[in-house]
Amino acid sequence: VQLQASGGGLVQPGGSLRLSCAASESIFSSINTFAWFRQAPGKQRELVGRIYRSGATNYEDSVTDRFTISRDNAKNTVYLQMNSLNTEDTAVYYCYGRGVRDYWGQGTQVTVSS
Protein backbone atom coordinates (compact mmCIF):
# COMPACT_ATOMS: atom_id res chain seq x y z
CA VAL A 1 0.00 0.00 0.00
CA GLN A 2 1.64 3.18 -1.14
CA LEU A 3 -0.88 5.58 0.36
CA GLN A 4 -1.58 4.92 4.02
CA ALA A 5 -4.99 6.12 5.17
CA SER A 6 -5.83 6.39 8.85
CA GLY A 7 -8.06 8.18 11.32
CA GLY A 8 -11.40 6.51 10.83
CA GLY A 9 -13.63 5.42 13.66
CA LEU A 10 -17.01 5.70 15.31
CA VAL A 11 -18.40 9.17 15.93
CA GLN A 12 -21.77 10.53 16.98
CA PRO A 13 -23.87 12.66 14.64
CA GLY A 14 -22.62 16.22 14.73
CA GLY A 15 -19.11 15.12 15.61
CA SER A 16 -15.80 15.47 13.80
CA LEU A 17 -13.00 13.28 12.54
CA ARG A 18 -9.78 13.93 10.72
CA LEU A 19 -8.48 11.40 8.24
CA SER A 20 -4.87 11.28 7.15
CA CYS A 21 -3.27 9.96 3.99
CA ALA A 22 0.49 9.52 4.18
CA ALA A 23 2.99 8.60 1.51
CA SER A 24 6.71 8.34 1.06
CA GLU A 25 8.42 11.53 -0.01
CA SER A 26 9.09 10.26 -3.53
CA ILE A 27 5.50 9.21 -4.12
CA PHE A 28 4.03 12.31 -2.47
CA SER A 29 6.13 14.65 -4.60
CA SER A 30 5.15 12.81 -7.79
CA ILE A 31 1.43 13.28 -7.21
CA ASN A 32 -0.27 16.30 -8.75
CA THR A 33 -3.75 15.73 -7.42
CA PHE A 34 -4.92 14.03 -4.25
CA ALA A 35 -8.53 13.09 -3.71
CA TRP A 36 -10.72 11.46 -1.14
CA PHE A 37 -13.41 8.99 -2.18
CA ARG A 38 -15.93 7.12 -0.09
CA GLN A 39 -18.04 4.05 -0.54
CA ALA A 40 -21.11 3.39 1.56
CA PRO A 41 -22.60 -0.11 1.86
CA GLY A 42 -24.45 -1.05 -1.31
CA LYS A 43 -23.41 2.11 -3.12
CA GLN A 44 -20.83 3.05 -5.69
CA ARG A 45 -17.61 4.75 -4.71
CA GLU A 46 -18.02 8.50 -4.95
CA LEU A 47 -15.68 11.45 -5.01
CA VAL A 48 -15.62 13.55 -1.85
CA GLY A 49 -13.14 16.20 -2.91
CA ARG A 50 -9.76 16.99 -4.40
CA ILE A 51 -6.71 19.04 -3.60
CA TYR A 52 -4.31 20.10 -6.30
CA ARG A 53 -0.60 20.73 -6.09
CA SER A 54 -1.40 24.45 -5.94
CA GLY A 55 -3.49 23.88 -2.84
CA ALA A 56 -6.77 24.60 -4.59
CA THR A 57 -9.63 22.37 -3.57
CA ASN A 58 -13.09 21.37 -4.71
CA TYR A 59 -15.76 19.26 -3.07
CA GLU A 60 -18.84 17.21 -3.73
CA ASP A 61 -21.94 19.27 -2.98
CA SER A 62 -23.09 17.31 0.08
CA VAL A 63 -19.84 17.91 1.96
CA THR A 64 -19.12 21.52 0.98
CA ASP A 65 -18.82 23.71 4.10
CA ARG A 66 -18.45 20.62 6.31
CA PHE A 67 -15.33 18.89 4.97
CA THR A 68 -11.91 20.40 4.31
CA ILE A 69 -9.00 18.83 2.47
CA SER A 70 -5.52 20.11 3.23
CA ARG A 71 -1.95 19.02 2.67
CA ASP A 72 1.25 19.22 4.67
CA ASN A 73 4.10 18.88 2.22
CA ALA A 74 6.67 18.68 5.00
CA LYS A 75 4.93 15.60 6.39
CA ASN A 76 4.00 14.10 3.00
CA THR A 77 0.44 13.89 4.24
CA VAL A 78 -2.99 14.94 3.04
CA TYR A 79 -5.87 15.40 5.47
CA LEU A 80 -9.64 15.27 5.32
CA GLN A 81 -11.20 17.22 8.17
CA MET A 82 -14.84 16.22 8.55
CA ASN A 83 -17.17 18.30 10.70
CA SER A 84 -20.90 18.13 11.38
CA LEU A 85 -20.94 14.47 10.46
CA ASN A 86 -24.25 12.77 9.86
CA THR A 87 -25.29 9.17 9.33
CA GLU A 88 -25.12 9.56 5.56
CA ASP A 89 -21.37 10.11 5.85
CA THR A 90 -20.91 6.54 7.05
CA ALA A 91 -18.63 4.85 4.54
CA VAL A 92 -15.18 3.50 3.88
CA TYR A 93 -13.01 6.45 2.91
CA TYR A 94 -10.17 6.07 0.44
CA CYS A 95 -7.39 8.43 -0.47
CA TYR A 96 -6.21 8.59 -4.05
CA GLY A 97 -3.31 10.22 -5.79
CA ARG A 98 -2.77 10.94 -9.45
CA GLY A 99 0.67 11.54 -10.86
CA VAL A 100 2.46 9.57 -13.54
CA ARG A 101 0.33 6.72 -12.25
CA ASP A 102 -2.62 6.28 -9.93
CA TYR A 103 -2.25 5.43 -6.26
CA TRP A 104 -4.92 4.21 -3.85
CA GLY A 105 -4.92 3.91 -0.08
CA GLN A 106 -6.37 0.91 1.69
CA GLY A 107 -9.49 2.60 3.04
CA THR A 108 -10.52 3.59 6.52
CA GLN A 109 -13.97 3.02 8.00
CA VAL A 110 -15.99 6.00 9.23
CA THR A 111 -19.17 5.18 11.11
CA VAL A 112 -21.53 7.92 12.23
CA SER A 113 -24.01 6.60 14.73
CA SER A 114 -25.60 7.47 18.05
Q: Features of this protein?
A:
four-stranded antiparallel sheet; 11 strands; mainly beta; 114 residues
The SS-based structural class is mainly beta
Average predicted confidence as pLDDT: 96
- The H/E string reads EEEHEEEEEEEE
Rounded to an integer, what's the Rg over CA atoms? 13 Å
Report the uncertain regions.
Answer: none
Number of helices: 1
Instruction: Report the major sheet.
Output: 7 strands, mixed
Summarize the structure.
This protein is 5% helix and 50% strand. It is mainly beta.
Description:
The chain is mostly beta strands. The chain contains one helix and eleven strands. It is 5% helix and 50% strand. The strands form two sheets. Strands 2, 4, 5, 6, 9, 10 and 11 form a seven-stranded mixed beta sheet that branches. Strands 1-3-8-7 form a four-stranded antiparallel beta sheet, with no helix packed on it. The radius of gyration is 13 Å and the shape is globular. The chain starts with a strand and ends with a strand. The mean pLDDT is 96.
Write the layout of secondary structure elements.
Elements: E1 4-6, E2 9-11, E3 17-22, H1 25-30, E4 33-39, E5 46-52, E6 57-59, E7 67-72, E8 77-82, E9 91-98, E10 102-104, E11 108-112
Parallel strand pairs: 2-11
Antiparallel strand pairs: 1-3, 3-8, 4-5, 4-9, 5-6, 7-8, 9-10, 9-11
